[in-house]
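[job 0412] stage=complex_fold ligand=iron/sulfur cluster status=START
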Amino acid sequence: MLGEGILKGLAETAKNFAGSFVSEERLTTVEYPEQRLPQIENTRDFPFLVYDGDDAMAGLRCVSCQICEKECPPKCIYITKSADKKPDYVGKAQFYPTRFDIDVSVCMSCQICVEVCPFEAIKMDTEFELSTEDRFGGLILDRHKLAKSNEYYHQIHPTEAAEVDARLAEEKAKVEAKAKAAAEAAAAKAAADAAAKGTADATAKAAESAAKSAEGQA
Ligand code: SF4
Ligand code: SF4
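[job 0412] stage=complex_fold status=DONE, emitting structure tokens
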């Protein structure tokens, strides 16, 4: 029947409108900002930078590789690489960003920067109340504003953050096992060298003593 879909839609709306007076479940809206709906875990808006530990700048995971800057479709990431290096989570010396800005007035929340980051350093935030009267400068977020702790990441995306932690712990364990094996191999080589040197010294001493004794007999 012509218009049947419209009538069905209106009936549903009327049912919810009348039902909302007796059942909260039929309320489809809340009185924002006094009331807020709980965020679902997969919510995403703009990126943030993850840091470990207590010091946001020292603990930034970003190594300034600039892959995200190159891959960002609207080119709204601006990075300047440091001249020196600092240790990363496995203790390896890495560059870090002295400047890391994202212009969120341009960002289209595509998450490509997150997908391409090899260091689990950039993730999508759920914070959406970013409006400001300063339409240009006020929407360029620098590394200080972008830096958020791993604990915060766990709060907003618990499943994903737990997977990332497990992956990083596995990589760290592999690096530590490799370093331990290398140290053990070096120690074994040093012991073997020392033992070989000891044998050579003993042989030389024995030869010297035999020579002296032969001289005595002559
Ligand atoms: S979410 Fe997309 S548009 Fe926004 S900074 Fe990342 S790559 Fe660029
Ligand atoms: S956020 Fe990731 S991809 Fe972007 S510069 Fe830092 S380490 Fe590289």
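The chain has six helices and eight strands.
[job 0412] exit 0
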